[in-house]
Amino acid sequence: MGYDIERFVGYVNEGLLCSICRDVLEDPLQAPCEHAFCTACIHGWLVHHSNCPEDRQMIDVSLLRPLYRYMKNDLNRLQLHCKNREYGCEMVCSLESIDRHERECEYSQIPCSNAGESGCLAARRLSGICKSFFPCLRDLTRRNKLFRSEMICRVEEAKHEMESRLDSQRRHMVQKESVLQNEIEELKSQMSRMMSDVRSLMAAERQHRQELEQAELEKREL
């Protein structure tokens, strides 16, 4: 199954939805017909079928491939809420970083390590204090992990943004280089035509000079 589309912030492109479960792609694979699926969804489908659920073209597990890189990048950039949002987590992270955050999320529902609080869940301890008002070491540790997870998330997002800008600048420079190369080729072509014209003028001048010399000789003979 994919990621619940209701967790995502903003518009999600139709091409990033699983053709079977209709949620956002999770661990995606792509068929030769370019329809994309969650790995679990398409493997489950192919147990009982031998065609694409979208256009009914014949497919086999061996023909499935990872998403195109540009689609994978678009998928990783999607922003979504933590799965523990209902328990109080307000973190919004890129899909690329969400698994790391959720593994360390302070609001995950786990038993408190304080032996005296058998029914206490660490996710409910925002103050670092259990129901008995004694410090919960595990809860404090998880809060520290959450802070580290958020920092990693932000660093990765900043890194991705910088890489995107560098790619844009690189494309711009390649385009400028192409334009300059075309201008150089045009100048070379113009110079070649000019040299050809100069050679033609020099040949015409020599011919004219020879005609004058011949006329001078004939004049002397007369």
From TrEMBL:
Domain RING-type: 18-56
GO MF, any single term: zinc ion binding
Keyword Disulfide bond recorded: no
Coiled-coil annotated residue ranges, if any: 170-221
Keywords in alphabetical order: Coiled coil, Ligase, Metal-binding, Zinc, Zinc-finger
SMART domains attached to this UniProt entry: RING (SM00184)
Matches recorded under InterPro entries: Znf_RING, Znf_RING/FYVE/PHD, Znf_RING_CS
Keyword Zinc-finger belongs to the record: yes
Pfam families reported in the protein's UniProt record: zf-C3HC4_2
Gene Ontology annotations of biological process type: regulation of canonical NF-kappaB signal transduction
Protein name from the UniProt record: RNF41 ligase
Species, as recorded: Corythaeola cristata
Higher taxonomy: Eukaryota, Metazoa, Chordata, Craniata, Vertebrata
